[in-house]
Amino acid sequence: MSAVASPRWFPQRYDAASDSVLLVERSEADFRAAAFLDERSLVPHAPSYVVPWDTVAGAVPPDARRDIQYLFHIGHVGSTLISRLLGELPQVLALREPQILRDFTACLAEGFWEPASIPARLDVLTSLLSRTFRPEQRTMAKATSFVSEIAADLIPAGSRALLLYASPEHYVGNILGGPNSRQEMAATAAGRLERLHRRTGESRWSLAGLSEGETIAMAWACEMSSLVQAGQRLGEERVMWLDFDAFLAEPAAGLGRLAHFFGLDVAAAESLAGHPLMGRYSKAPEYEYDSALREEVLAEARREHGGAIADGLRWLRRAAGESEAVARCLDAAEAAG
CA–CA separation, 53 vs 258, rounded Å? Predict the structure, then answer.
């Protein structure tokens, strides 16, 4: 099956009911432009076809590349900007939020596959996402935040991952500073609380009993606990923690550290601190957005929602006293910061 050898045929999504994968034709320019490799990025009438999973798996050669690197994050912390900046380097083929990673996460969470079959499925997925347009390239996938649940299972041997976060105060303030972010948070809170309860091993908190600030703090703990779990399983040599606001304070230094960690051209990465992307909204580059505007949003949130932010921080401190999993999140943020 020739399509398996070419990165032009991207595994768009996995359908569990039919055990098949949708392959969609994409150019290198398509990958460069897309903020999300999901339904939003599909072009009408783009060449595509559905292939049984077994057919795809059978076509992957034993010596196929399996060297994809990853960027995991807690959401609303500049992951798209980091991905776009690193994607400017000729050594990187950046994949932003592939739908198929979400599909695999859902299948694993629901126990859809026989346990014995999972390693082989993950191996095939790794090989499909590791394909590049040139031998000197290496793929780097920015996953959707909840995909962090399976982060340690996704990263192949020899690969590394960035774990991107923001401090609790900045995270809560940033969410409260945006109407769309607040709506998204309300819509996803139940799922995040369920995930956090799985991590803590008990249903300790009730969503109905949480204020808005506490709910956002709970979401921070949920997403951070996924990263902490990944870091513990992978080991400190294979992960790099990065506070996004610390990165914005010194972007050249941050990019240099990222390049060194991932084995990229350090000087070329440091020069990207002056790239026009630093002044645009990464998910929609037609809009201006930079570190100064982010600080304005945070400052306004502190003025208008100071009480809610304080509620969230107090809840985190209480939760850390009740749960080792939450305490580890605060410890990780403090250590990395």
Answer: 35
**Phi, psi (degrees; rounded to nearest 5) at 165:** -150, 180
Residue that is written with structure tokens 């600080």 in the block: 295
Q: How far apart are CA 54 and CA 151, in angstroms?
A: 24
For 227-238, what is each residue's pLDDT tens digit? 999 999 999 999
275: exposed, middle or buried (Cβ count in 10 Å: 0-12, 13-18, 19+): middle
Taking 80 as the threshold, does the pLDDT of residue 26 lie above it?
Answer: yes
Q: How far is the CA of 312 from the CAs of 62, 191, 316, in angstroms?
A: 50, 18, 6
Distance CA 46, CA 56 (A): 20
Q: pTM above the 0.85 mark?
A: yes
Compute the distance between CA of residue 16 and CA of residue 116 in angstroms, rounded to an integer: 17
Q: How far is CA 243 from CA 58, 127, 261, in A?
A: 41, 30, 15
Which amino acid would we find at residue 134? R
In this predicted structure, the answer to whether residue 2 has a pLDDT above a threshold of 70 is no
Helix (H) or strand (E) holding 180: helix 179-200
DSSP state of 150: G
Task: State pLDDT tens for residues 259-317.
Answer: 999 999 999 999 999 999 999 888 888 877 888 889 998 999 999 999 999 999 999 99
* Contact yes or no for 326/200 (Cβ under 8 A): yes
**How far is residue 152's CA from residue 141's CA, in Å, rounded to a whole number?**
14
Mean pLDDT of the chain: 95
* DSSP state for residue 29 in the 8-state scheme: H
Q: By CB neighbour count within 10 A (0-12 exposed, 13-18 middle, 19+ buried), where does 43 fall?
A: exposed
- Whether 34 and 192 have beta carbons less than 8 Å apart is answered as no
Neighbours of 201 (CB within 10 A): 10
